[in-house]
Amino acid sequence: xxxxxxxPIGVFDSGVGGLTVAREIMRQLPDENIVYFGDTARLxxxxxxKESIIRFSRQIIRFLKTRNVKAIVIACNTATAQALxxxxxxxxTPIIGVIEPGARAALHETKNKKIGVVGTEGTIxxxxxxxxxxxxxxxxxxxxxxxxxFVPLVEEGFTRHHITEEVIDIYLKEMKESEVDTMILGCTxxxxxxxxxxxYMGEGVRIVNPAYEAAMDLKKLLKERNMSNENEEFNKYEFxxxxxxxxFKQFANSVLPYNVETIRQINIEEF
Length: 271
Ligand code: DGL
Known about the structure:
By secondary structure, the chain is of the alpha/beta class. Helices cover 45% and strands 16% of the residues. It contains eleven helices and ten strands. The longest helix is centred in the first third of the chain and has 17 residues, at 50-66. The chain starts with 8 loop residues before the first strand and ends in a 6-residue tail after the last strand. The structure holds D-glutamic acid. D-glutamic acid binds at residues 13-14, 17, 43-46, 76-78, 119-120, 123, 151, 187-189.
């Protein structure tokens, strides 16, 4: 049998946001190599149809398989909500999403079982977080809210801008006035607004970032399948995008704790 231990982990997202998940994998699994793909040509996924997201996800998984990945993390909440179930049945590579880990972490944190979820339109309308939370805890109450302007605000670097504070107030007022004691940041970009959201929601609300829990799920999966890379002397991280490599590089260097030098652009439609 082929030794998969040295093979990389494939991580993908619609763009740069998934770097918050890649960053967590780098922290929690420092010996693993990563191949990251950001679908910058077709971002945003949050407003696209399920059919399109499934097609995009299939193409990206086919590409990642050409890089011989041993497991794949769908870092994008929208792609997890719309495509994970389908692609898991179609590919033999193990695939992890971010919704189940996020739901589990929220249930671990909540005291009153009232959980808020913020995400893209695609994620919130799919009701996937609600479904997964109810499978784990049928008595839980879930309040979802789509916050489509958060993604462009983060992309523009407006994480500490007064406009962002106003948008947070518009989207999250109802959630703040509700009884939720735990809120899931159900979109890759939102951890970059974490401090602004935390400040707005106040101390009584715990904020959950699914990225940490997803990295722990990956760790468990690799261990169970005897695929962990334990003796790597230096890690190799590769980054691919479908467009705008230079912009991606700047963003990557502001999010990741080391210097990213090379970003390769590929034509994802070929896969
Ligand atoms: N990556 C997406 C998510 O986590 C957000 C950006 C997009 O809409 O493509 O849902």
